[in-house]
């Protein structure tokens, strides 16, 4: 089972391994917190500093560990918020007459499973998940317009350019 970590180490270096380990740890924590206290209890750990491009590593780790849609959305919401992209969690359901299904996604993400879903809940990220503008290496806050667009989940949202 060393294949995937070794491939990741070769492709992304030690930082990629740290990001994958964070994603796995965050998913486990989110799963426990949702089970024991619901959405109000969710407090994923802060992600390691690094470029937005590492989101691919987070997605791959979540896929490999079998994260469900809610776990994936909450971990990605935490990751995006730490990179100055506040995203709203959306939870939707289908009508019982068509066979009840529930699904979670981040607003603005393309998701084929959300077709036909009726939104039940929209939950913005915890304000404490956003980096402090005074934090070293946090990067400058974006303009108010870009921040509002990212929060609304509009396509073409601005992403951080931090190294």
Automatic annotation (TrEMBL):
<dbReference type="InterPro" id="IPR053521">
    <property type="entry name" value="McjB-like"/>
</dbReference>
<feature type="compositionally biased region" description="Basic and acidic residues">
    <location>
        <begin position="114"/>
        <end position="125"/>
    </location>
</feature>
<feature type="region of interest" description="Disordered">
    <location>
        <begin position="114"/>
        <end position="163"/>
    </location>
</feature>
<feature type="domain" description="Microcin J25-processing protein McjB C-terminal">
    <location>
        <begin position="22"/>
        <end position="107"/>
    </location>
</feature>
<dbReference type="InterPro" id="IPR032708">
    <property type="entry name" value="McjB_C"/>
</dbReference>
<protein>
    <submittedName>
        <fullName>Transglutaminase-like superfamily protein</fullName>
    </submittedName>
</protein>
<dbReference type="Pfam" id="PF13471">
    <property type="entry name" value="Transglut_core3"/>
</dbReference>
């Amino acid at each position: 089972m060393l294949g995937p970590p070794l491939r990741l180490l070769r492709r992304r270096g030690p930082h990629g391994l740290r990001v994958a380990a964070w994603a796995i740890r965050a998913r486990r924590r989110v799963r426990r917190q949702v089970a024991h206290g619901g959405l109000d209890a969710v407090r994923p750990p802060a992600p390691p500093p690094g470029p937005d491009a590492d989101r691919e590593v987070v997605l791959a780790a979540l896929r490999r560990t079998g994260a469900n849609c809610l776990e994936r959305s909450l971990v990605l919401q935490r990751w995006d918020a730490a990179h100055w992209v506040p995203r709203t969690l959306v939870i939707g359901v289908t009508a019982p007459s068509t066979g009840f299904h529930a699904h979670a996604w981040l607003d603005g993400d393309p998701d084929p499973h959300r077709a036909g879903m009726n939104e039940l809940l929209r939950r913005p990220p915890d304000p404490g998940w956003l980096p402090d503008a005074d934090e070293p290496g946090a990067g400058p806050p974006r303009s108010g317009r870009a921040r509002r667009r990212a929060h609304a989940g509009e396509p073409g949202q601005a992403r951080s350019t931090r190294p």
